[in-house]
Amino acid sequence: xxxxxxxxxxxxxxxxxxxxxxxxxxxxxxxxxxxxxxxxxxxxxxxxxxxxxxxxxxxxxxxxxxxxxxxxxxxxxxxxxxxxxxxxxxxxxxxxxxxxxxxxxxxxxxxxxxxxxxxxxxxxxxxxxxxxxxxxxxxxxxxxxxxxxxxxxxxxxxxxxxxxxxxxxxxxxxxxxxxxxxxxxxxxxxxxxxxxxxxxxxxxxxxxxxxxxxxxxxxxxxxxxxxxxxxxxxxxxxxxxxxxxxx
Length: 247
Fold this sequence. Notes:
By secondary structure, this protein is α/β, with parallel strands linked by helices. The chain has helices at about 20-30, 45-55, 70-85, 105-130, 145-150, 155-175, 190-195, 200-210, 220-230, and strands at about 10-15, 35-40, 60-65, 90, 135-140, 180-185, 240. It has a 7-stranded parallel β-sheet with strand order 3-2-1-4-5-6-7, sandwiched between helices.
């Protein structure tokens, strides 16, 4: 008796061409997902990742656009649906971090962070709420600094606290649709975004802060995301702190 090949589950990962997003794309592809690799500005990196995945026998497509632009995100979702037939998981890793004391933070920088981190998360969540299939998952990304409350992170934490709020309410609004909505809140992760502007002493201090005494790696967060995207069907409306044991 012949059997038809199993249709893979489909994920769209915003900010999927670098840092944590790239690790998430690679992990989900390894787990058998067809993946939409979203990029905002670096199309070449996204296409290179797509080529890597397809060379390894997976399925992927690059989709572009500003996450805060509802028309661009509608088109990105449509491109993924056209390529793979639907969307089961949305992982929203796209974000920017600009640090300064609250008294000194340039308000244009605050507006930039809020546009990408808050409006972008809202726009992507809105499309996901309309399109993700039953049995699916929506996963946003916050930060453990919402609890550790480090100086200079005020504007960034304000934007990520909003991400957590969006997540918790959307989980309740999707009652009855069998779609989980959660946030992963990383601790210090060795990505260019985190390492930029920090000297060796500062980096060593962050590495010692957690009981595991190291910086996290993007793969650590990808593993947490894959858990929420796959077997974790009874975890819903939660913030999962993936930080090596920070307070």
